[in-house]
Amino acid sequence: MKCRKCGGRAVLELRRHNTAFCGPDFVDFFRHHVLETVRRWRMFTRDEAILVAVSGGKDSLALWDVLHEAGYATTGLYIDLGIFEYSHASKARCEAFAGERGLPLRVVSVSDEVGAPIPAVRDATRRPTCSACGLSKRYIMNRAALEGGFSVVATGHNLDDEAATLFGSTLRWDESALARQTPVLAATHAKLARRVKPLFRMSERETAAYAFIRGIDYIVEECPFARGATSITHKEVLNRLEDVSPGSKAMFLQGFLDKARGLFQEREAVRLLECVRCGQTTTGEVCAFCKLRDQVKRAVRPGAGAAATELPDAPDPAAARGLISDLFAASEIHAP
Ligand code: Q46
Ligand code: ZN
Hints:
The chain is 50% helix and 11% strand. It is an alpha/beta fold. The strands form three sheets. Strands 5-4-3-6-8-7 form a six-stranded mixed beta sheet, with helices on both faces. The protein is globular, with a radius of gyration of 20 Å. The model is unreliable at 314-336 (pLDDT under 50). Fe4 H S5 (Q46) is lined by residues 81, 118, 129-130, 133-134, 223, 225-226.
């Protein structure tokens, strides 16, 4: 297999683009697509300072790498969820990445903000773990952006994430979720930062290959709470479709963005108010985050924390091996 650009030995075949690249040309291809997405969707300008939300995983670190290498002014934001060893290891990856490049990294702890780490929040509220976690992350991201003077927050959501979210929302015909599904969530209130997803056209396999070729040390293990999540089943279904018909995921997502999103958006105009407690945006009097914090405060005794809670089932070792080792095993990617 030859690189389409230089004719050298290709390390990665991209079936949906009907092409193959050597390592350096794949890196160029990847960067070009991400920066083209930023430009076409007007995600941010060269003058803006960008807060990049990083989890220590391949997507967010690959995104930070692309933006930094392209000369954007970036600062990382790591939200410490307090999820056992997973959080220790993922934080260490973000600190190492930032340290090696001399980039600023802000760390905010959910324990400090909500009153307990995520596993204890789950026990205190009996709310699905990922729902409490997602709410906390969105709130902390927005507040960190406002307090730090950033008008935009970039996240590492890739094509597989976005297609799976769209698939789930469509199965439920969740109109508000469909209205919010966009690579650029505009700041519709003075207390909101713009949220953008520059990797939304790059597949998970492509971001894994980019991170690998660039030598980025990222955490391969998934969050232990991701196991059994419906979104993973949705991803598997879409992967089967993609196998049979390369390009299906991109067609599904892009078709929605081009033809259907506007229809849902028109019907979803909500009036945003400011939370009487914290000043962040809400549609009611008190925002969902302040309510969550109250619930946690009532339930968590001082001194109780993650140690008092149980780990979810240990991740399936085969699943935890991660995508890059699967790519290796399938001889799909070779060291450049
Ligand atoms: S939401 Fe759920 Fe993630 Fe939070 S608890 Fe883990 S899997 S980290 S993207
Ligand atoms: Zn509030």
